[in-house]
Amino acid sequence: MSTLFGLVARTVAARQALRENWRSFIPSTFPATDDDGWSCDLDAGVVLYRARFDSERRALVTTPQVDLAHLLVTVAREGVDALYRQTGGFAAVFWDAPRRLLQMVRDPAGQCSIFIRQDQLVDVFCSEMTPLLEDPSFDCRLDEESAQYFLSFGLPLPGRTLARGIAHLPAGHVRQYGPSGPALTRRYFTPLDPDQRKVADDAWLEHIVATLDAAIDEQGADGRAAILLSGGVDSSYIATTCAARHGAEGYDAYTIEFEGKGVVNEVEYARLAADAAGIRLHPVRMTARDAQSALQSVLAQAQPCAAWAALTHHHLMDHIAGSGHRRVLSGLGADEVFGGYSRYLQFYKRLRRHEERRPCDGVHALDSLTWRESHAERDLFPGIPQFFDRTARRKGLDGRFSHWSHASVLASFYRECRQIKGDAHVFEMMVAHECQHRVPDLLFAGFEPMTRAHALQSGYPFLAPDVMRVACALGASERFWVSGGRWKNKKLLRRIALKRLPEQIITRKPASYTTPIRAWLDTPSFSSELRERLHSSQLWDVGLVRREWLHGLERQLADGAVGRQHGLVVEQYWVLTILAAWVDRWCDRAAGTRR
């Protein structure tokens, strides 16, 4: 059993109830209680599944991605804060019986999860959300405030899920239960680091290269892996480095080759990168029919994924799992930490304009943005995707919700950043925002369950803790430059990669190689399935979104308009589909049945 399970009592009364019959508190979706894998410290109110104990009666329960024995020694000797150095995904629960202290820890990048359901007397925790949702005793209801955040940004509110009553431990955080007082959640990892540098001279550049190479070594050390190769700088750098340091024989590269009218592929660049590294390349063809097949799995996820790249990811994992590989390496995270998005520049310019207006002498410009809700919404970086913007929320949401604002959530995050590192520049804080929210709770939430479902383990070298810290501090001059009248991105990373990759990859013209969702929506079988799901959904019974808004989106899709506004329509239609499918899959209908 690879999932982490357990119970912890919140009160004295709960500990007494556990002593009397602890088995009655374990959901039926957890492992059978007659299994000898359960360990109980009933006086302390703790029940764990397959815990490993040391001689001091300290125990550790983890997901299988890490060396449990090594981790137990590290945590016992240095405390859970030492895990800020731990590369790779893990979820862990450390039980210190002598101190009656239980700590739940989620890895720095948020690759793995810990969900906590607060029942009447105990907190039930699990590294997967499905067993908590499928428990017949749990009456699943939509968390409407979290759903609004999901429609806006594609992920639930920080620390929450779409299910009312099920919390999600944030990435890089620990939740602690002591012998008295309430459970407390605190941060133990942040990419904001005062010892890192904004500008890279030659010596610091070598340090960055060594840090990145060490992360690639650690996550591909056995010399065997499937590499997700797009032909971009990020994945090409991983492929070339792996081949140079471990030999090319044990690696295979996989890239998607979409089929359909007007579809743009990057197989040419992927082949160029694979040939340069000496690695076999396997183009994986994907049609609209394949997308429809993958759609069933995407819409059934316990953690809904608003990134339509999840369709592509599922299709790739299906092929890679059949190849015999058990480890996948991805370049995901390079755009986020090395600053490859134009949206960073947009919010940088907004802050600079705000600084010029000087709202108040002696007050940091970013701090002053938190004073007014409208300014915070407009000028604080909220993440890369925004599905429902302010206009869509006002027109598309029911009147009870149409004036909801995410300003307080943004203000809280940036005030925390300023407390952690008072002189952090705006790019650092934007990168920290991506690392704290979008990467773990949108991308990993969709990709990782699919990867694990195919018995695959994934590695993300660009999201290793040391890499996040060193890249986060880089300033604007190391991220962007102007060439030929256009802004170019990932300046420092391209400078590093130029020594290892063909120049054609470094200088390739910008193009959108995204999942062709527009083309798939033009396919009758694919679009009709989405339409049927949306129109028959019980989401409309919740009263969150106006049905008229859906009709308007469908009219705009039928018109076939192009441009940014049309792209936003596609995004809104997709995120509505994902939310509706989640509600229908997991929330009880009036009759008490689930689909």
Attribute tags:
single chain; 595 residues; Glutamine Phosphoribosylpyrophosphate, subunit 1, domain 1; Rossmann fold; 4 domains; 6-stranded antiparallel sheet; globular
Question: Could you explain the architecture of this structure?
Answer:
It is a single chain. The radius of gyration is 24 Å and the shape is globular. The strands form four sheets. The chain has a six-stranded antiparallel beta sheet with strand order 2-3-1-9-8-10. It contains 24 helices and 19 strands. The chain has four domains: 5-187, Glutamine Phosphoribosylpyrophosphate, subunit 1, domain 1 (4-Layer Sandwich), CATH 3.60.20.10; 202-339 and 438-506, HUPs (Rossmann fold, 3-Layer(aba) Sandwich); 342-436, no CATH class; 523-586, no CATH class.
Structure in a nutshell:
By secondary structure, the chain is α+β, with helices and mostly antiparallel strands.
CATH A-level architecture of the largest domain:
3-Layer(aba) Sandwich
Find the CATH topology of the largest domain. Rossmann fold
Low-confidence stretches: 589-595
CATH class of the largest domain: Alpha Beta
Q: Record the strand order, biggest sheet.
A: 2-3-1-9-8-10
* SS strand fraction: 5-15%
Q: Portion of residues in helices?
A: 40-55%
Overall shape: globular
From the helix content, strand content and strand pairing, which structural class follows? alpha+beta
Whole-number total of structural domains: 4
Largest sheet: 6 strands, antiparallel
Number of helices: 24
